[in-house]
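Contributing: when you submit paired examples, paste them exactly as shown. First protein:
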Amino acid sequence: MSNDTKTPATAPTPAVDPRLLQRESGLAGYWNEFVRKVRGGDLGSLPVVVGLIVIWAVFSFKDNKYFAASTAEFIAYYMVGIGLLSIGLVFVLLLGEIDLSVGSVSGLAAAVYAVLSVNNHVNPWLSVLLTLLTGAAIGALHGWIFAKIGVPAFVVTLAGFLAWQGAMLWLLGSTGTINLEDKGLNHFLAGNSYFMGGDISGGYLLAALAVASMALGTFGEQARRRKAGVPFRATGELLLRTGLLAVGTFGAAYVLNLASGVPNAMVLFVALLIICDFVLRRTSYGRKIFAVGGNIEASRRAGISVPMVRISVYAISGTFAALGGLAIAGTTNAAGQAGGDPMNLMMAIAAAVIGGTSLFGGRGRVWSALLGVLVIESINAGLFMLGLTLDYQYMIMGVVLLAAVVVDSLSRRTQKSSGRG
């Protein structure tokens, strides 16, 4: 007797949103999700956080004054210029491209500002606007040549590196330096300018605003997702994230208040980080950048104008290069040849990559600029305290940068082998 009854094939297990597992399993669910991500190559900010802990431990062991408030103030102030360059580079790296001109553009921008505000007595804030527009125009030009003509970005921006360096030297003239007046943005970014005049309430106010903004954003998103009937993060996780941010921000405010307060330059830097993070993660334009960086052909088929995304991203890079140049000039109150130092470019690229932005495109966050430049300036501060020279700094930076790229490459390889790349 034949049996025509067939056993139905086992249906594949549907993928479950990790947030559902976390909500159902409590702390064990979060730990299992963390292990799953690490095994799958999704390391996130883990390598750079571990690196920071190691750096701080090593230098504090060498010199117990490393954790002094003055060291934190040094790091907070001098990280801004390179950090601003790095923000623009994060946008470019997300496309899987590079911009080698940002160092020269930053030096040229400082020279343009000095010529306008000092030599020609243009209103300082109008000079800032014209300087930023100059950076945006230069970046857009690079992007247009790359996107429309098809010249590789490496070649276009390398040519820009040389050309704008020459333009900077021409503007600065025979003296090679133009001293800046204590007005406008230069006054705001000066080394002795602190939020609310250095009053201790200023730092705590900024910390409270940061925590409140995160709480409103995350719990608001949870409410929207709950109402829409889609997976949402557990309340316990949001409270933990908000608590950790509160500890970090209020702790930083306390340490900086032990010195002179929160530098205005740092306030500007963090504000721009928040804005750029919102643009990349919460807007259709940001999603287009990730799409183009992940797969150009798929982006074209989806109707995304790849040339316009590329041109706009390079314009953003040029704008941040100009703003970074103004910040670097503000540290010395002068626009000089040091503003176009090629090491500014190298450090900005290193900051973005060390912070976790992939050189291969499509993966990274704008907060990479903060984490990466924090690593760099933490090392610089430690070497300065130990009295070590630039040769040690360059060698250490080279090792750290190589380690970051190796981690990124291994992470991508692990993701591909686990079917997530």
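Second protein:
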Amino acid sequence: MRILILSQYFWPENFRVNDLSSELIARGHEVTVLTGEPNYPDGSIFPAYAADPAAFARFEGAPVYRVPIIPRGGSSLRLLLNYLSFVVSGLLLGGSRLRGQEFDAIFVFQTSPITSAIPALWLGWRKRAPVLMWVLDLWPETLSAIGVVKSRCLLSLVGAMVRMIYKRCDRILVQSRAFYANVARYAGGDEKILYFPGWPEPVFSTSGGEPEPAGELAPWQGMFKVMFAGNLGQAQDIPVIIAAADLLRDEPNLRWIIVGDGRAGADAREEVARRGLEGRVIFAGRYPIERMPSFFAAADALLVSLRDEPIWSLTIPGKVQSYLASGKPVVAMLNGEGARVIAESGGGVAGPAGDAAALAENVRTLMAMPVERRAEIGQAGRAYCQREFDRAQLVNKLEGWIEELGN
């Protein structure tokens, strides 16, 4: 099949759409990508791309067309301009970039912003191709939850835009079953909504054996290491994690390792310094996804968190699948669907979002367990992940849905 993948974010940025594209290409589909210039999460255009854009014009043989955007920067205004610039560039230049090409389907990777679907709908109309959108963030609720938009009037206008987008999509894929009611409210029903969760990236496969622990963490060998990996943003509630670390400062063999960075990174470092936790909370820096298995192998527990907001209780954070696949116990500070998955898997312990004391207690519980018991928990999570989030089976479903739309 001829599939156009439209996403504001794409390789060399690290998103699961890269892996989906890779799998579709490997299955023999003619994949084309329309995306923006890479600038996530730092907020500036990647130096390697700026130096040689042609080096990023193909992904595993598939053509990648990029439209100019305003980089995210570090302010809310720049973020808004970033969102708008992709829409404008996609509408004005997307058609010319793809002139003469026909597609059997257009697939939209919709993490924030949902506005990235607007060029896809226009291209779908122009090329008479069905549009499938994979919803990973719920708008306008996400805007309210992270404090980007506070005006009820403006949120209502965004809601009207969401309604327009959902109603014009041929299929809406949701990463969590808890998304159904919210999406159906804007889409006018649930007839075209399908459950399509994320999966762990192939680098977390253990077919080649367990990875060697990351050498970068050797200075803390023998200590109990709780690792947070990924984006440091407002949604992750990093200040509460630091508060939990403060509550456990009396544990001499405990270290909190943060692998990643983001818009909240600078504030997190300041808070760690303010509390005098520099030796307890370690900022290890950002590493490519290919290195994550070795970092996870060096951890004793993997931490996932989301703020105490109703919208986040509906979400399964993308890192949950990767954490479970690693075979390490997961310690979660979140509500709702994400917590349910952790509990149902038997792969870890979950406490309420925003509760530093509960997180600290759960970490103490894991520390007190025999190593063998923690290994059993990790293996239970891995088995659940293999059963519930198998990439091959999920992509099989996606192929079937696209074929149905063509009939």
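If you have annotations for the second protein, write them as plain sentences, like these:
Residues 2-199+390-406 form a domain with the Rossmann fold fold (CATH 3.40.50.2000).
The two ends are 13 Å apart (CA to CA).
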